[in-house]
Amino acid sequence: MNNRYVYGIVDGETIEFETDAVAGAEQVYTISHRRLGAVVSDIDTTDPEETDEDAQRHDDVLREIMNQDGGTAIVPMQFGMAFESDRTLKNVLRGARPAFRRAMNDIEGRIELGLKVVREEDADVDTDAIEEGVAGELEPIAAQSVPNDLFSDRLVMNRSYLVDRDDREQFDEAVADLEEQYDDLIFRYTGPFAPYSFVDVTIGAQQ
């Protein structure tokens, strides 16, 4: 298994631990170029199949890194980024270095949290008023937020929030307060996640 599967990019961190990684790998470690480090495991292909199990392992590795040493920032990669050599991967790190630096600055010390607001069946709700009420509580706490798809007709809101780790408790309390305010709504609050929704870095084709 000479190829390298990439989970994400860290700044100046040396990471190495044993875990259930993608495609049966058991070790996660960093390959570095200057201060950037790609967190990788070994894999026998550059085109891995996205099974449910491996997608979960990808996310679990990211979460484990995020929880190290009181909170390690990592620019997450989407599932499937694999490269045939360390040299190729280091060339990618070199070429995308400015973009990774910008992304790292945006997410340093922050986590992604998700909130779906679902109306009870047959409930008649004022969507605009709900969006305004939720925004009034949560937007002042979050550093950024982005909308996600409304994939159900009962889904009133679906939004991701980038929140400073130090503000997590305040954000939790604000969501709890919102739940008490609205009788006909279900609040599905999830996270923390690696900040996929707030990172847009393309690192080139696998080769």
Kindly state the mean pLDDT as a whole number?
A: 91
Alpha plus pi helix count: 5
Give the termini separation.
15 Å
Rounded to an integer in angstroms, the radius of gyration calculated over CA atoms is 19 Å
- How many domains make up the coordinates? 2
Overall morphology: elongated
SSE pattern, N- to C-terminal: EEEEHEEHHEHEEHE
The stretches of 5 or more residues where confidence is low (pLDDT under 50) are none
Helix content range of the residues, please? 25-40%
Q: Largest sheet at a glance?
A: 6 strands, antiparallel
* SSE class: alpha+beta
In percent terms, what proportion of residues is strand? 25-35%
Number of strands: 10
Write a short abstract of this structure.
With 207 residues, the protein is α+β, with helices and mostly antiparallel strands.
Tell me the layout of helices and strands.
Elements: E1 3-11, E2 16-18, E3 27-33, E4 36-43, H1 52-66, E5 75-76, E6 82-83, H2 86-95, H3 97-107, E7 110-119, H4 127-138, E8 144-147, E9 155-164, H5 168-181, E10 185-193
Antiparallel strand pairs: 1-4, 1-5, 1-6, 2-3, 3-4, 7-9, 7-10, 8-9
Helix pairs in contact: 4-5
Notes on the protein architecture:
30% of the residues lie in helices and 31% in strands. Helix 4 runs antiparallel to helix 5. The chain starts with a strand and ends in a 14-residue tail after the last strand. It is of the alpha+beta class and 207 residues long. The radius of gyration is 19 Å and the shape is elongated. The mean pLDDT is 91. The protein has 2 domains: 3-108; 110-193, Multidrug efflux transporter AcrB pore domain (Alpha-Beta Plaits, 2-Layer Sandwich). It contains 5 helices and 10 strands; from the N terminus they run ββββαββααβαββαβ. The strands form 2 sheets. Strands 1, 2, 3, 4, 5 and 6 form a 6-stranded antiparallel beta sheet that branches. Strands 8-9-7-10 form a 4-stranded antiparallel beta sheet.
